[in-house]
Amino acid sequence: KSTIRIAVLPGDGIGPEVMAEAEKILSKIMDDDGKTYELIHGDVGGIAIDNHGSALPGSTLDICRNSQAILFGSVGGPKWEGLPPEQQPERAALLPLRKTFGLYANLRPAVIFPQLQDASPLKNEVIGTNFDLLVVRELTGGIYFGEPKGRENDRAFDTLVYTKDEIRRIARVGFETAMKRNRKLCSIDKANVLTSMVMWREVVNEMAGDYPDVSVSHMYVDNAAMQLVKNPGQFDVILCGNMFGDIISDEASMITGSLGMLPSASLADGSFGLYEPSGGSAPDIAGQGIANPIAQILSMGMMLKYSFGMNEAYSRIFAAISKVLDQGFRTGDIMSKGCTRIGTAEMGDKILAAL
Amino acid sequence: KSTIRIAVLPGDGIGPEVMAEAEKILSKIMDDDGKTYELIHGDVGGIAIDNHGSALPGSTLDICRNSQAILFGSVGGPKWEGLPPEQQPERAALLPLRKTFGLYANLRPAVIFPQLQDASPLKNEVIGTNFDLLVVRELTGGIYFGEPKGRENDRAFDTLVYTKDEIRRIARVGFETAMKRNRKLCSIDKANVLTSMVMWREVVNEMAGDYPDVSVSHMYVDNAAMQLVKNPGQFDVILCGNMFGDIISDEASMITGSLGMLPSASLADGSFGLYEPSGGSAPDIAGQGIANPIAQILSMGMMLKYSFGMNEAYSRIFAAISKVLDQGFRTGDIMSKGCTRIGTAEMGDKILAAL
Ligand SMILES: CC(C)[C@H](C(=O)O)[C@@H](O)C(=O)O
Ligand SMILES: CC(C)[C@H](C(=O)O)[C@@H](O)C(=O)O
């Protein structure tokens, strides 16, 4: 029986605290399912800068290379804010990880647990009930990595590049996920201004032929930023390039009102993936034991599903979280009247007990 | 006494309908102020494609060149949607106008009239009262115009370029407007990923030295897209490059809930400017006499203020609109219970009467 090997990179801020809870749940599930597994811990982000002089040290990369998936916490904090931009923990850890492991498909669900319906900044009639959308973001191309990129005297530049192949493979992920959901795909571009986005739209349209059951629409990114606020329920799967996906997925997360609840997956071809919460390292509340571990736990759940095919385990985690919310337990960020406020570890324990 | 010459380009969809109302008010104000003025009408957008084979014909450009300001309606509609992207009315009319006349500073106020407080998709406690922000967007540079831009086989690219001078002049507009408002400027960038945006941030920081009274902050664009939804009241003046400004200003407009109320100004050095509503040509309601003319009227007001130094005229228009809203008159888009629904021309007449 082969051993499942997972790289665990807790990072900075609340990362280690919420990761501890995700590991508790992970152990229980693996044991229940009779799996042999190994968690290999590595430093990443600010703590790796402090300990090894780099946000993504070679030793950590080696751990990742020897694993089948990466469970990532979050990185960054005020301590490292003075560093030059290219050495900042977030960028210097995440971008090379994405590129090295070919993690081109970023899945970011924006859902509202019915128990947290009131948390959205949007009016109830605007957000509706059962709000549930998925952003599929291209993660290893576009203006993030395009060459040339540089600075000459008083002129600085970046290049937004896409090839048809890059667009095809992320669009395929968009169409495939749409098939598993409500068969509705909205592709975001700026084809009225950008040459690369004209091609983006063409490729998506070409591929639509392979998916006659998916209803495809196109929206300019400025309009999408508006429509998400005006009528978010119109979307099911949103497909974006790297930069637009960065903006649109964050906006979508925030309209749920519970950023601390949202996981994300960054997938390569095959089964390798990196899984991390959508929120950040929240240095303001780090070390107090009050952070919400649910996003980290759900990210771990996504890992079980996408990297290890354990769909049932994912559902089990999801159901346990839902049960604990039904019981009225809340961390501070999702607290509401009549509920019981609990800390990070207690939340982990409750979910463990509810599995 | 010199004659004020204004190019009037109503365009498509609701453009001509709302423009007619703006012209009514304009005439009254000019007459009251004893100004000699000339309005020179030209075709632009889809109608110009139909009549002259181009969204921005030479004759229209000539009209603009012979004027001191451009009052612009809105362009585009389903009739022209089949055209190749670079011939689409919006792009083919607006981008060359901006570039030809050096309209580098786009001012987009996002305000909520107290009478329309409930229109926001955001909860009352989130949007607050007196919501009032101004987006200052760079409009003639960045990835919209950067070279090279093109396509080679299966690879397409665009270039995001900024020079220090380009950043300086738009940042100056940002700082100057902040000085006239609440002395709070938030500059949006993506300095953690883009080389051009590292320089953007540097230049803004350098210039901050000239404005010790302005409190300056920096925010990544993804975070800004979130913060606008989470806590929009934290912003006063937002400074952005062209692409980010496109997205962020639209998002900001929509959170007011009254896009049909919002004007915009696109300014060159000196007093030349183009003024247009923030919303589009709304082909779905064109020709029915029900469109809201207020954004067009306010755009005209901004023209009087910025191109002709008629600050008082602007305030007079603003006050008249406020009075009509107080009287309970509303077009369909801003209708609410207990108010009286009126059409485009009636709204124009009421505002005229309230001047
Ligand atoms: C930290 C930053 C480089 C990163 C990005 O822009 O992709 C982050 O915002 C994200 O969305 O994961
Ligand atoms: C029509 C389009 C080219 C334009 C832009 O992207 O600038 C529009 O969205 C705007 O904001 O004025």
Q: Whole-Å distance between the termini of chain A?
A: 25 Å
> Which pair of chains has the greatest number of interface residues, and how are they split between the two chains?
A-B, 59 and 60 residues
Q: How confident is the prediction overall: mean pLDDT of chain A?
A: 96
Helix content of chain A: 40-55%
Assign the structural class of chain A, choosing from mainly alpha, mainly beta, alpha/beta, alpha+beta, or little secondary structure.
Answer: alpha/beta
**Number of separate helices of chain A:** 12
Name of the level-1 CATH class of the largest domain in chain A: Alpha Beta
Radius of gyration over C-alpha positions of chain A, nearest whole angstrom? 20 Å
Oligomer: homodimer
Keywords (chains A, B): Amino-acid biosynthesis, Branched-chain amino acid biosynthesis, Cytoplasm, Leucine biosynthesis, Magnesium, Manganese, Metal-binding, NAD, Oxidoreductase
Subcellular location (chains A, B): Cytoplasm
Domain Isopropylmalate dehydrogenase-like (chains A, B): 5-351
Cofactor (chains A, B): Mg(2+); Mn(2+)
What do these coordinates show?
The structure is a homodimer of 355-residue chains. Chain A is of the alpha/beta class and 355 residues long. Chain A contains twelve helices and 14 strands. Chain A has two domains: 1-108 and 263-355, Isopropylmalate Dehydrogenase (3-Layer(aba) Sandwich); 121-256, Isopropylmalate Dehydrogenase (3-Layer(aba) Sandwich), CATH 3.40.718. Helices cover 41% and strands 21% of the residues of chain A. A ten-stranded mixed β-sheet of chain A has the order 2-1-3-12-11-4-5-10-8-9, sandwiched between helices. In chain A, strands 6-7 form a two-stranded antiparallel ribbon. In chain A, strands 13-14 form a two-stranded parallel sheet. The radius of gyration of chain A is 20 Å and the shape is globular. The model of chain A has no long low-confidence stretch (mean pLDDT 96). In chain A, helix 6 (164-180) crosses helix 7, helix 8 packs parallel to helix 9 and helix 11 packs across helix 12. Chains A and B meet through helix 4, strand 7, helix 7, helix 8 and helix 9 of A and helix 4, strand 7, helix 7, helix 8 and helix 9 of B. One 3-isopropylmalic acid sits between chains B (90-91, 94-95, 246) and A (192-193, 222).
